[in-house]
Design brief:
Elements: H1 2-16, H2 30-33, E1 39-41, E2 48-50, H3 76-79, E3 96-99, E4 105-108, H4 111-118, H5 124-127, H6 173-179, H7 183-195, H8 204-215, H9 218-224, H10 229-234, H11 237-243, H12 252-256, H13 281-285, H14 314-346, H15 351-365, H16 369-372, H17 378-402, H18 407-415, H19 419-457, H20 464-469, H21 477-490, H22 505-529, H23 531-538, H24 541-571, H25 589-595, H26 597-607
Antiparallel strand pairs: 1-2, 3-4
């Protein structure tokens, strides 16, 4: 009776799944094993054991084991009866008998792979000493190949041989003349088998995930006194590119296996033939797949940059400098913003504000007064909005690269057309920003020249330097004293707020910060963009410094603009929701009276205007 039921099951399988040819699954194992929920709880261990087999591995020549029957690896006597007898572990080094369509067999074995592993850094002796924090990754007698390998699919060979793409899976008519039935299967299989191996067997992130099983496990790291190399890799430029979808980014194998060599022969850094040995690592970086033609100095750029372990090194000092700079610049500015918000909440007003408000009201009624109160010219407003647009583009394309592990970063990069498009936008926006800075310097030089000519025409003695420091955006010692008086006023130590001119201390400080940021980000960005030229001229280690400086300066810029500048020009009650000064050049009356009273008083004196008591500022 059991035999009859088995025959009935086989017949049912052939009727239900007619597409499964006998050559693909001669024992019809997928009749049961194609279901994802096929599993049971082991009585001895209480663990769930899964028996699902991906059908694609056995059909369509999609996997390297596609031409093997299940019994070619599993003991035929154990699996030929249903229910199966206890199944022994598969030995991946056993000799296989691969049949072709004519019934001929050839022998194949992975024994040579086992011999390669014996002399590698992943030898059986080493792997036997690996104890993961969550328990053993493999069960007793299970093949150690499973530390790194699961059942893979062939990768699309068109990535390695683009000429295959136009064929669309077809064969040539002249081949069909003799091989109409055999050619489609054989060509598809062998093209995948050969061409797919001209590119990495796994996507870059999958390689990192495989390595992370051991190289990110806390117990393994502690036992072998290793750093978390996979974590530092994902924080590197290679890892971030991979996280954002760049499959061309270097993987662990790209660096730790010499070009053209076998991953099973991976050697430790101390071995003279290792790809990451100090004498060989430059050639690994300069492979045709990574940085062909690069100078050997490129290898000095750290692929695993761990700043906490570099105390005293230049990279650590640079990072510490930028952290301190951020605290010293952003900190005081943020304190003033918070104190100003508190003054608004408690209704604090300066006694001098009332007189300034009356002056503003009188000047707005004067035909010349309204024009003289315009703080930004058309040219300055255009420059401001060009700067704002480029800043947004740079932040939108740059910060996803810094936070590549976040979902929003991948969403932004995909919306921009992929990492390649995001990089292109970032590079050209950076060039435009530098060009804009140069145009602004020309504008400043022209303004200085005009001021000097006017002073000379008025009979005043002046120099270029005198004309330069007289510009309204120049930050002077007097501005420093006014900043201290503003802090004292906000701390209730003074009755009146200091009067500022056309531009306040905060605006001047931000202006100087833009110049500092554009110069630093422009230089370091160019160095990173042209990494081969940089390493050839300045050495590879300079790239570490450029990356640190570029990253920390970008953070400094984004928190200043995203928090302080937005709070001052958009969220402050006197200008909410946006100061019209950046569009029309005209500042709201309340903001003029409180933030630019010195300018208001000067314009009033020049026009001979004195406010009447109770004059409106509307």
């Amino acid at each position: 009776m059991p035999y009859a039921r088995r025959r009935l099951a086989l017949l049912s399988a052939l009727l239900i799944a007619p597409s499964m040819s006998a050559a693909d699954d001669p024992q019809n194992c997928l009749f049961c094993h194609q279901y994802r929920g096929l599993s049971r709880i082991e009585p001895s261990s209480g663990r769930v054991r899964l028996y699902f087999v991906q059908p694609e591995h056995a059909h369509g020549s999609a996997g390297p084991h596609a031409r093997l029957a299940c019994a070619d690896c599993h003991n035929r006597d154990e699996v030929s009866v249903v229910p199966h007898r206890p199944v022994t572990r598969v030995d991946c080094t056993r000799t296989c008998h691969l049949p072709d369509r004519n019934g001929l067999e050839r022998r194949f074995s992975h024994q040579n792979i086992a011999e390669m592993l014996d002399g590698s850094v992943h030898s059986p002796g080493v792997l036997s000493q690996v104890h993961l924090s969550q328990g053993g990754a493999l069960e007793p007698e299970q093949s150690r190949c499973l530390y790194c390998h699961d059942e893979p699919l062939f990768r699309d060979p068109s990535g390695a041989l683009p000429i295959l793409e136009p064929l669309g899976g077809r064969t040539f008519d002249r081949c069909d003349a003799c091989h109409r039935e055999q050619a489609p299967t054989d060509i598809a299989y062998y093209l995948r088998h050969v061409a797919a191996r001209l590119q990495p067997a796994r996507p870059t992130l999958e390689v990192a995930q495989v390595c992370a099983v051991c190289h990110s496990d806390p117990a393994v790291l502690a036992a072998w006194e290793m750093d978390n190399a996979v974590a530092s890799y994902t924080r590197s430029y290679h890892g971030k590119a991979a996280l954002l979808g760049d499959e061309g980014a270097a993987s662990c194998i790209s660096c730790h296996v010499a070009p053209g060599s076998n991953a099973h022969r991976m050697l430790g850094a101390e071995h003279p033939l290792s790809a990451v040995n100090p004498t060989n690592v430059a050639n690994s970086c300069r492979s045709t797949a990574c940085h062909p033609g690069a100078d050997k100095a490129l290898a000095a750029a750290a692929a695993h940059l761990e700043l906490p372990k570099l105390r005293g090194a230049l990279e650590f000092v640079i990072a510490a400098f930028f952290i301190i700079l951020t605290i010293l610049t952003f900190g005081p500015s943020m304190v003033i913003v918070v104190l100003e918000l508190f003054a608004i909440v408690v209704g604090r007003h300066s006694h001098a504000d009332e007189r300034a408000k009356r002056l503003v009201g009188a000047l707005r009624l004067h035909p010349e007064g309204l024009r003289r109160l315009t703080r930004f010219t058309v040219s300055q407003r255009v420059q401001h909005w060009v700067l704002a647009l480029l800043f947004v583009l740079l932040a939108l394309t740059g910060f996803p690269m810094k936070f590549a592990d976040q979902d929003w970063s991948r969403t932004v990069v995909r919306a921009l057309g992929g990492l390649g498009a995001a990089r292109l936008i970032h590079h050209w926006a950076g060039l435009a920003l530098v060009a804009g800075a140069l145009v602004h310097l020309i504008y400043v030089a022209w303004t200085v020249r005009q001021r000097r000519r006017q002073a000379i025409a008025a009979g005043e003695r002046t120099t270029t330097w005198t004309a330069l420091v007289s510009l309204p955006m120049w930050l002077s010692a007097q501005d420093g004293r006014k900043a201290l008086r503003l802090l004292a006023y906000l701390l209730f130590l003074r009755a009146d707020r200091p009067a500022f001119g056309r531009f306040s201390v905060k605006e001047k400080f931000e202006y100087i910060g833009v110049f500092w940021g554009v110069v630093l980000l422009g230089l370091t960005g160019a160095m990173l963009w042209g990494e081969q030229l940089t390493s050839r001229v300045l050495g590879g280690r300079v790239l570490n410094i450029a990356l640190i400086a570029h990253t920390y300066e970008a953070f400094l810029a984004i928190i200043h603009v995203g928090i302080l500048h937005i709070a001052n020009v958009m969220l402050a009650p006197n200008v909410f929701p946006l100061s019209p000064a950046t569009i029309t050049g005209r500042t709201p009356p309340a903001e003029l009276a409180e933030g630019h009273a010195e300018m208001v008083a000067q314009v009033a004196r020049e026009l001979g205007i004195e406010p009447a008591e109770g004059a409106s500022n509307a």
